[in-house]
Structure formats: structure tokens, C-alpha cells
Amino acid sequence: CQIILVETKWGSLRYAKERVEKLSLENVTICLAHMDQFCGDFEVGVSLHACGSATDLVLKHCISRKAAIVSTPCCYGKILNLDKLNYPRSKNISSFITDSDYYF
Predict the structure, then answer these.
(1) What three-state secondary structure class fits 2?
(2) Which residue among 26, 51, 57, 81 has the highest number of C-beta atoms inside a 10 angstrom radius?
């Protein structure tokens, strides 16, 4: 299998690169990008501690590519108002809560 690591933090990628090299892994590609910038193909999306809206972006990309999802969201709810995502995400909840109420 091929693994593509997408990360926005250079320090995290540097650490990942060191580990990949130390373990002599040949199936890992490292990509410095935001999820909105990543356009590669994949079959399984995995996110670990995806902060704030990053979890929603991972879910959005996985669903659009019909990929399986394994996601561990962030441990605190830092949701940002992004142009690419509307909150609340649920149609049922958005019928009685406005976006300004959601962000309180």
C-alpha cells in the first residue's frame, strides 16, 4: 500500500520524514499542504487529532472520493468559520439553529 501524509505543520513533517528514513519506509510520501489543497487519489482517509474544522474537511474529502474513513477528531472544539464548510453540518440541526448561534 502507498501512504500519503498530508500535514500543514513543517515541524511535524520534518519529524515524520526522520522516522520514515530511520525505518527505511519506501511507501510513504510526505505532502506539505492543507486538506483543501490536496487533490490526490486515495482509498482510505485517516486523520489523527485533526483540529477544529480539519476533521470535517477530511470527512468531506473521503466522502467525495468514496473512500473509507478512520478519524480521531480533535480533543477540543475549535471550529472556525470557513468558506468551504457550512455549520452546523447537519440539515436537521441547521433547521432550528443559525450559524451565529452555532459559533456562540
Answers:
(1) coil
(2) 57
